[in-house]
Amino acid sequence: MRVAILQSNYIPWKGYFDIIGSVDAFVLYDDMQYTKNDWRNRNKIKTQNGLSWLSIPVRQESLHQKINETKITDTKWNVNHWRTISQSYAKAPQFKAYRDRLEALYMNATSEYISDINRHFIDAINEMLGITTKIYDSREFVLSEGKSERLLALCQELGASTYLSGPAASDYLDESIFKDAGIGVEWMNYGGYQEYHQLFPPFEHGVSVLDLILNEGENALNFMKSRNK
Question: Can you tell me whether residue 154 is helix, strand or coil?
C-alpha cells in the first residue's frame, strides 16, 4: 500500500495528479495552516498575453487558520474564472470536447470553503484522467502531534508500506521514524516531463493540468509519469 499526503491545491499542475496516480491512497492534508500567496487558492494558465494567475479571493482572519477553515469572499469567482479559461483556450484542440463538462464543473463550484472547492476540482480531474486512487480527507483521522509523527500516524492508519512524499518535505521529514515503523519513504521526482502541444509559446510545464487536458484530451496521460502505475 503506497500512500501520499498533500495539502489541497486549486486546479493543480500535472505533477500533483502524478503523485495521486502513483499511490493507492491519497490524503488531502488541509488541517494545516493556511498560507498566503501559495497554491491553495490559485494557479496559472497560459493566455495569449503570457502566464496568468487565476486566484480565488479568500479571507484569512488568523495566522493559525487552517486551510479547511478558510472561506471564499467572492461568490462570482467561478464565473470569472470560467470566462478567462474559455477565452484563453477556445482554440485549444480539445476545448470543444471538454467545454460543457468544465463549464458545469465551474458553475457547480459554489461552496464557501476553499478546501471543498479544491476537492470538487480534484475529484473531477481525476475522473477525466482516469485516476482511480482512493481520496481521503485528513479530518477523517485522529491526528498526532509533530510534523513527521502526524504523517507517520496517517500512513499507519491506512496500512501503508510506503510513503511517497513531495520533495518540499525533505527539509523537515524525519525518515528514521518511518524506517523504525517499517514504512519505506520514497520521493516524488518532477524532472523529465515531455513537452506536449501547448498554445502560446514558449512551453511552460508549471501550469494547471487543465492546460494539458484541453490541449491533449484523452492523450494527456501519455505526458504524465503515473500512466505506468
Answer: helix
State the burial class of residue 202 (Cβ atoms within 10 Å of its Cβ: 0-12, 13-18, 19+). Answer: exposed
Q: Quick one: which of 206, 219, 203, 210 has its CA closest to 82?
A: 210
Cα–Cα distance list, 130 to 33, 124, 196 (Å): 31, 10, 19
Where do the structural domains in the chain lie, given as residue ranges? 2-228
Q: How far apart are CA 197 and CA 204, in angstroms?
A: 11
- Grid cell of 71 as nine digits: 472561506
Q: What would the pLDDT profile of 74-127 be if each residue is shown by its tens digit? A: 999 999 999 999 999 999 999 999 999 999 999 999 999 999 999 999 999 999
Q: What is the pLDDT of residues 173-229, one digit of tens each?
A: 999 999 999 999 999 999 999 999 999 999 999 999 999 999 999 999 999 988 655
Q: For residue 21, count CB atoms less than 10 angstroms from its CB and return exposed for 0-12, middle for 13-18, buried for 19 or more.
A: buried
CA 75 – CA 80 distance, rounded (Å): 10
CA pseudo-torsion sign 218, 92, 108, 209: positive
Residues 6+ apart with CB under 8 A from 172: 147, 148
The distance between the two most distant Cα atoms of the chain, rounded to a whole number of Å, is 53
Residue with cell 496500512: 159
